[in-house]
Every structure is written in C-alpha cells, then in structure tokens.
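Project outcomes to date are best conveyed with an example. Our students and postdoctoral researchers have been running inverse folding experiments weekly, and each run begins with a structure described purely in tokens. The record below, which covers 316 residues, was selected by the lab manager from last quarter's runs and is presented without edits.
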C-alpha cells in the first residue's frame, strides 16, 4: 500500500496539485461554492464561459433531469468580461488553486476581445476556449470544422501568452481530426467533452422539457462517450488531454486517466453533491494508495489494448 501518492500533474507549463478540476458552467465563478467547499482541494477551477458583454442566456425552463444525467440549455448566461475582472477576480486571485477562465463568443472578434482583456489581468493561470457550446446559435461552429477550429486557436495563440486549452464538442464525426487541427494551431491542451445535443419531451403537454427545445446532455449517461473521445484524442495528439463527462468518483477519474487523460473535470456531479470535486480527488488518492500506484502520472494512457488474437470478436 502506497502511503501518500503523488497527485501532481502538468498541463503544459501549469502544474496542478491534483488532476481534478471543476468544470465550466457547473461551478459559477468559484465564490458561490467557496462557503461550502475548500477550493484548495481542487487541482483547479474553470469558471463559467465569459463573453464580451453580459448575456442573459436562454428562456426557461433551462434544465431537466434525464436517466443518469441532465439536459441544460443555459445558453452562456454570464456577467461579461468587464464585470468578471472587476467583481469576481478580487476573490478568485486569493483562492489557492489554479484558475482557468473559460472564454466564449459568437464571431472570432468576440473571443479575441475577451482573451485580450483576460491576458492583461493578473491571477489567471490558463484560458479554456469554449469552442463547443450546443446552446447558442453557431456555438459549435468552431469545433465541428477543423479549418475554423484551427483559425480560432491560431488567432488567440497570436495574442496571448497564457496556456490555451481548446474545449471540444462530441457532436462531430471524428473528434480526433478536430483535436489534431487545434494542436497544430497552437493549443497547449485539449479538454473533452462538452455536452451532447439532446432533447426530452413532456408527453402530457407534448411540449419540449427545455425552453430552447434542445439542450446539452451531461452526467454519467455520457461517460462512455467521453472516455472514447479522450482515448481517440490521446492517440492523435501529444498535448495533454483533460477528460470531462459524467465523473462521479475517484474510480471514474482513474478510468479517464488510463484512457489517456492527464486531468479531469467534474461537472454535473457537483449539482448532486457540492463536495463532489474534492471527493473525487480524495477517492482518487485512496484508490492509488490501495492499488500501489505511487503517482497518478503513471496511470496516464496506461490502457492495455488486447492484441487481435486475445480480443473477443464483436459482431454487433
Ligand atoms: C448547467 C451546465 C452549464 C454548463 N455551462 C458551460 C459553459 O458555460 N461553458 C462550457 O465550456 N461548458 C459548460 N458546460 C459543460 C460542462 O463544463 C461539461 O463539459 C459537461 O457538463 C460534461 O461534464 P459532466 O458530465 O461532468 O457535467 C455546462 C454544463 C452544465 C450541466
């Protein structure tokens, strides 16, 4: 039994004390949870997507529970980058964990504006580019087309020194192709996945459960899709991959690391239990100790794919 496993991992130049991050859009601007959770138990937190101007989001209802998950159509409601810098950064600067700020927008110029403003702001460790929101018109355009994905990342690469994490959508035919294009354009890491497009109908009223009709599916229901995406991406690129999708426990985090992730993000689980992120980090450490794994780094990409002779034959 390993006493104190080493949980540190690196996302490019950024060292995290453990591989567990809070996912964008599920952890507000950090301060909302600071009263309930010790934020330094996280390897880092990722804040809600910011746009140049404050944004009200989509009409309600904006969330619906589904089997093993939830649908949301929040639609990038946020305070806008100026209010974020003025009102949220004084708190976030004093939080003892890595701060990753998620950047969004419509046209490229909006991403550029937000990135420029944040690059001048002290206390931010990295930017995550939300190229993949299914809940805004045109929100996924940047990560469904390799050319547009590369154009966005290379434009932002040219204007900031901060590490850039490209967050990809699973709503594509081949996520590996998109991953390759953003790596070539200068992304320091890739996070995957954002939500899957989904819909639910209230059969009594025959109305959609969400005001925006469709939304994004998250939670344990999407975990196998996310693990497959991480495995695919990790086989295509050399930069670190951050796995997201349905993580509820330390064992779930191990699964993502073995499939190729360097770090993970916890999203929907936080709505079930506000301590979900720290609990994933703690149970990951316990699992490593009980499994004689001295460092989580040794788990990354350690998957064993059976040879053709060993593999069972699947015809379905
Ligand atoms: C209510 C809600 C709001 C979200 N808002 C954002 C967002 O603003 N930006 C973003 O990049 N992802 C957003 N996401 C996606 C999550 O960060 C994450 O990629 C996704 O939910 C899958 O992880 P999970 O299954 O652990 O929730 C949101 C997810 C939920 C459930």
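After processing, the design step wrote out the following sequence:
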């Amino acid at each position: 039994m390993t006493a104190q496993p080493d949980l540190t991992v690196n996302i490019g130049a950024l060292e995290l004390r453990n591989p567990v991050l809070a996912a964008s859009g599920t952890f507000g601007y950090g301060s909302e949870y600071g009263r309930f959770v010790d934020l330094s138990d996280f390897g880092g937190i990722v804040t809600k997507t910011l746009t140049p101007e404050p944004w009200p989001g989509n009409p309600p209802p904006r969330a619906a529970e589904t089997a093993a998950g939830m649908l949301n159509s929040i639609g990038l409601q946020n305070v806008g980058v100026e209010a974020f810098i003025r009102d949220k950064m004084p708190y976030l600067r004093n939080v003892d964990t890595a701060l990753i700020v998620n950047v969004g927008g419509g046209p490229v110029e909006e991403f550029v504006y937000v990135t420029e403003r944040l690059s001048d702001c002290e206390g931010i460790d990295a930017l995550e580019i939300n190229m993949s929101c299914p809940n805004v018109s045109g929100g996924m355009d940047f990560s469904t087309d390799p050319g547009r994905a590369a154009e966005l990342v290379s434009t932002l690469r040219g204007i900031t020194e901060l590490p850039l994490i490209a967050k990809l959508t699973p709503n594509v035919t081949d996520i590996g192709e998109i991953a390759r294009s953003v790596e070539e354009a200068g992304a320091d890491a890739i996070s995957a996945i954002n939500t899957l497009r989904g819909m639910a109908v209230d059969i009594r009223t025959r109305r959609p459960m969400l005001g925006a009709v469709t939304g994004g599916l998250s939670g344990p229901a999407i975990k196998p899709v996310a693990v497959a995406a991480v495995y695919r991406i990790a086989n295509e690129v050399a930069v670190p991959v951050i796995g997201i999708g349905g993580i509820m426990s330390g064992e779930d985090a191990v699964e993502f690391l073995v499939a190729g992730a360097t770090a993970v993000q916890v999203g929907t689980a936080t709505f079930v239990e506000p301590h979900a992120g720290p609990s994933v980090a703690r149970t990951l450490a316990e699992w490593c100790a009980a499994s004689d794994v001295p460092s989580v780094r040794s788990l990354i990409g350690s998957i064993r794919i059976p040879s053709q002779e060993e593999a069972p034959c699947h015809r379905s």
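The chain has ten helices and 16 strands. The domain at 9-299 is CATH 3.20.20.70 (TIM Barrel). The training component of this project remains on track.
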